Amino acid sequence: MTTATPSTALATIQPVFTDPERLALAGFLAGYRGLTREAYALDLRQFTTWCRARSLNLFAVRRADIEGFARDLEARGRARATVTRRLCTIAGFYKYAVEEELLEHSPAAHVRRPRLDYESQAMLVAAGLSPPAEHALLSLLALNGLRVSEATGADIEQLGLERGHRTLTITRKGGKVVTIPLAPRTARAIDLAIGERTGGPVFLAADGRRLDRHGAGRIVRKIARRAGITKAVTPNTLRHAFITAALDAGVPLRDVQEAASHADPRTTMQYDRARGSLDRHATYIVAAYIAGAAR
Hints:
Number of strands: 3
Radius of gyration: 21 Å
Mean pLDDT: 83
Number of helices: 13
Shape: globular
Order of helices and strands: HHHHHHHEEEHHHHHH
Structural class: mainly alpha
Strand order of the largest sheet: 1-2-3
Low-confidence stretches: 1-8, 10-15
Helix content: 40-55%
Oligomer: single chain
Largest sheet: 3 strands, antiparallel
Strand content: 5-15%
């Protein structure tokens, strides 16, 4: 069997692996780059360290062992979202090993993951391990409640800074131009997504043209699968989740109506299952609320 040259990301998570295990680790990480690869390497380093401390070979691990690792993380006070991210990485690693015929079946296939209160929360966890553009798109949909046309129509020239708020000026349904604040994680993801570009669309398709709604839909579906969500999820699902989470978090109905760009408040009220300024914008409250729900 041909062995792969270990990557630098793997240098600190080896030394005691069998050849198939080493090949699987190197191959899995080779499919990613940048911050995504670093995050996956960190997750695997923690898991392999845990396994070595218990004299467990990676390919001898059972489902109960992986769930034991998750319980250990919880006992050390890790947030549910963090535990879920670690388990997503482990599941992806073992799935890769099975696909490459290095392992017969994945011990992580049916591992129970911590319950997250919102599907958008689980998807944001998965998006954090995705390329920056995908992370930025998910964040705009889930934390700003944008329509897919509003997100894909965003231009770099419309990014700004206003009274300490990172902002984005977008064209709403009906042609209304508004300026919205960006949650810190959204702003960071957008900065990474655009890199050194100074103009043009924020989101580009593989051919270099503006990402369209179909491409955005494919990204959302891919991240939903990565998050372990089996039912159909669309960009509009994330918009609905934003509105519901805002109301659950106690954001005033008028502020939610403004954030969602609903002309009629009765449209917003339909989302109230339980019952304009930048400083009061719902995006900040939703971002903090969803993060807090993971703990």
